[in-house]
Structures are given as structure tokens and as C-alpha cells.
Amino acid sequence: MKRYEKLAGEIAQSIRDGVLRRGDKLPSVRLASSSRGISPATVFQAYYLLEARGLITARERSGYFVTGGANGIPQLPEPEFTTRPQVTQVDVSELVFEILGSVRARKVVPLGSAFPSPLLFPLKSLARTMASTVQSMDPWSTVRDLSPGDENLRRQIALRYLIDGLKIPTDGIVITAGALEALNLCLSAVTRPGDAVLVESPTFYAALQAIERSGLKAIEVPSHPRLGVDLDAMELAIKEHKPKVCWLMTTFQNPLGSLMPDDKKKDLVGMLTRHQIPLIEDDVYGELYFGDKRPMPAKAYDTEGLVMHCSSFSKCLAPGYRIGWVAPGRYSQAVERIKLTTTLAASVPAQQALAAYLAKGGYDRHLRTLRHNLLMQQIKFIEAIEACFPQGTRLGRPAGGYFVWVQLPDNVNALEVHRKALEAGISVAPGPMFSAQRQFGNYIRLNYGHLWDAGIEAALKKLGEIITVAG
Ligand SMILES: Cc1ncc(COP(=O)(O)O)c(C=O)c1O
User: Fold this and answer.
1) Ligand 1 midpoint to CA 180 (Å)
2) How many structural domains compose the chain?
3) What is the span of the domain harbouring residue 274?
4) Could you tell me if 242 and 311 lie in one domain?
5) How far away, in angstroms, is 284 Cα from ligand 1 center?
6) For each of the chain's 471 residues, which pLDDT tens digit applies?
7) Atom of ligand 1 nearest to the CA of 324
8) Are both 371 and 436 inside the same structural domain?
9) How far is the CA of 280 from the centre of ligand 1 (A)?
10) Cα–Cα distance, 114 to 94 (Å, whole number)
11) CB neighbourhood size of 234 (10 A)
12) If you measure from the C-alpha of residue 337 to the centroid of ligand 1, how many angstroms do you get, rounded to a whole number?
């Protein structure tokens, strides 16, 4: 990423975080250039880029000021949230399957998809590495690399943990078929039918489906659209309903995009340690941050091995390879044994190819470009929503990932919007699929992980019209 793009990205982030507000003056070009040690031309380029995005505006002889959104339209407020935990039997699978089934067609504009565009990934470079790895593959590795998985890959993952300041030994990592398998293994390792599992509300529908399939109950705890799960409500729910495990996304939660601040993650782990409740931490979006460093997972504060940290390469490097992992802490043996008795191992060629790709270098460069592209796509996307959606719309501005959680005016039915949008060739993810109690009837999750083009712009305009008519 070029320097001016980095500076523009950081300023855009500050605007989204509310650190810089509408009307605030940006530092002068001279000051920004001397304080950051970059040339005035670079600062100018960054300011031009932000101006072109409608985020700042130049006032003659006064400098640059934050406009707050496209063409000076004020930023939409954050979605609302409630604070009452609820316990329920889960019955969302049919709804989720119905919605997922309807949005897969290639010709549908994939605003409701859970995946980013595959074109954002270094597919050619991965394919070359895969080909050369498979050609020189030791035939015995297909026997040797059963669970916990290819040692080189586990070492590469342990190295990345280390760079982020987490000491996870190579043999503390189990390779899985994507993060979803990792999450399910953890759930099986610590629950029996009838147990209760604490989740965020709203939460990733696959967590609800796993709970439903395993005969468990869900305790849904309200989550703030920017700051994540409400810890006071969570502690009350723990005391009252005694969950066996918590399943949370502390970084760029799906669907909210919320990011728990470091202190809050620390308090969360402290609370779970006091109650001796394990945490399944789903961290598949952690690498997709727009700030200057990777947000620490809750696992970083875990001193007793209670946190099972799950992630994968599906969202940031190699979609379709189906390689993920879990660092299960004190539950290592249980997780590894369930893996061995269910799917035995993850694909050995895919594991080896990813290990070789990571060892070769270039992953961080790819990630920087990916983050930059996602941030730029988010800026355009949010500008379009601000311009096209009706009054009463509220909007989260995530600091990473590729989802935006949109609260529609009260009287708009998200399932109805989903149906009408699909007729017009556009998918959205309606709020009720993220809740065991089918809450969030007037919310939708939109995916900005696809390259911005006239098709997406037109789809957002059309969606705005559908929502306006539905209101
Ligand atoms: C929050 C979350 N966790 C886990 C997954 C599954 O990840 P994987 O594709 O690596 O199995 C997804 C995919 O949509 C997700 O959004």
C-alpha cells in the first residue's frame, strides 16, 4: 500500500470511529508532513483521496475539514441495542437454509453473502505454490499429517501468534477443515445435549445451527454494535443460567462488525476465569483490520487455557481450501480426539501448500492490500447507503471485516426486503437469521467485500428504493 493510501485509510478510520467529527479541521499539510516524516506531496495526495471520497472538504485559505459523509450528508447514527439476555431452544436452521439457498446464484448481487469476492485473493500465486508442493510431496506425509495436522503449517501459525505477542506452541494447534469445523469440535468437546451455550445477540447463524443440531439451548446476550457483548448482562446470564461454554466473536463480530476494546476482552476473560467457563473464540476476521495493528484476541489474556481460539484462512487468504485451526488450550486432547474420530484430518495437500505459501513470504503484503481494498470499498458502500436509504436508517461503521449492520426504520420488515430484493436480483442477509428468537426484524447485514462497481452501486440504489417503499 502506498504511503498516501495508508494515511488516507487512517484518517477515514478516525472519522468512522468518531475521533474526527463533522466540522473538525485536519492538521495542516505542513504539520502532518513534519509530524509523520512524509513529504507534503504525500499528505496532499491523501487529502485529495479523502476529498474525492466526500469525507473531507477544502475551504479556501482555511485548510481541510471533515464533512462527515458523502456530499456533506451527516453520518447516520449507530444501530440500537437492548440489554436483556434471553434463553431459548433454537429453531433457525430452516430459515437459514432457505435464505442461503436463495442467494447462491452467480447472477445475484451478493450483498447478503458471507464471503468476500474471491478476486481479492492471490489465487495465481497460491495455485503455483499448490502445484509445486503437490509435485514434491512426500507420499508418507498423507499418513504422518493426520490430526493435529501438518507440522510446518502449525509452526507457521504459531509464528504468526508469536508476532502478535501470543505464545502458542506448535503442538497446541489443531488443523481443521475451516474455522467452522474448529468451532464445532470445541462445542462438542465441552457440552452435552441439554446444556446451555452463551452467545452474542445477534450472532453468526452457524453458531445457532450448531447449538440446535447438538440439542443445546442458547442464552442470547445483547451486544453493542461497536463495543461487542454487554459484560454486565453476560455476568447476570452466567449466574442465572449457568452456561457450559460461551461462543463469542470478540473481533469484527458477524453480523455487527463490533470490536471489543482490549480492556473489555481482558475483563471478559477475567470474568470467565472466575466462573471457570470456557470460551470458544471465533476470530476469522481478525486479520482484516483497518487500524494500524491487529486487534488482540481474548486468548491473549487467557492464563488458564480456558479460551479455545479458532480461525482460518478462508476470509483472508485461501477461500475454498477449507483450512482452519484451533488453539484449544486445556481442551487440546478432547478436541484432537473428536477430530480424529470424525474427519480424521484436513486436506493434506492444502495444508502443505499453505505452509509453503506462508514460509515463502508475501502473505503480509497481500493482507495489506486486502485491508486497504476492503476499507476503500466500505467507504464507498457507506456513502451510497447514506445517500440512498430512507430517513430513520442507522448504520454501524466497523473498523475491520466486510460486513455492515444496518437498522432500517421500525416499520420495515427485513424478511420482506430480502424477498423483494431477491426478485430484483439482489441478496441481503435479514436480521432474524442471526437470532434464536428471530429478533432484529428490521435489520439487515450487507457485505461490502466485493469490488465496487456500477452493479453494486445500482443494487444499493435499488435496495434503498425497496426499503423506502416497504416503510
Ligand atoms: C463468524 C464466522 N465464523 C466462522 C466462519 C466459517 O469459517 P470457515 O469458512 O473458515 O469455516 C464464518 C464464515 O462465514 C464466519 O462468518
Assistant:
1) 6
2) 3
3) 122-362
4) yes
5) 6
6) 778 888 988 888 888 777 888 778 898 888 888 888 888 888 888 887 887 666 887 776 778 888 754 434 446 778 877 657 777 777 777 788 877 877 677 889 999 999 999 999 999 999 999 999 999 999 898 888 889 999 999 999 999 999 999 999 999 999 999 999 999 999 999 999 999 999 999 999 999 999 999 999 999 999 999 999 999 999 999 999 999 999 999 999 999 999 999 999 999 999 999 999 999 999 999 999 988 889 999 999 999 999 999 999 999 999 999 999 999 999 999 999 999 999 999 999 999 999 999 999 989 999 999 999 999 999 899 999 999 999 999 998 899 999 999 999 999 999 999 999 999 999 999 999 999 988 999 999 999 999 999 999 999 999 999 999 998
7) 10
8) yes
9) 13
10) 17
11) 23
12) 22
For residues 297 and 61, what is the distance between their CA atoms, to the nearest angstrom? 45
Does ligand 1 come within 6 angstroms of the Cβ of 353? Answer: no
Cα dist. 143→105, 132, 146, 438 in Å? 38, 20, 6, 45
Nearest residue (by CA) to ligand 1, atom 1, is 254
CB distance 204 to ligand 1 below 6 Å: yes
Query: Which of 331, 362, 393 is the endpoint of a domain?
Result: 362
Give the nearest ligand 1 atom to 180 CA: 11
SS3 (DSSP) at 439? coil
- What does each C-alpha distance from 142 to 152, 339, 344, 352, 389 come to in angstroms? 14, 16, 11, 10, 53
C-alpha triplet 433, 436, 441: angle, nearest 5°: 50
- Do residues 452 and 387 share a domain? yes
For ligand 1, whether the C-beta of 312 sits within 6 Å is: yes
Mutate to test the pocket of ligand 1, among 248, 250, 284, 311 (most ligand atoms within 8 A of CB): 284
The model carries a pTM of 0.86
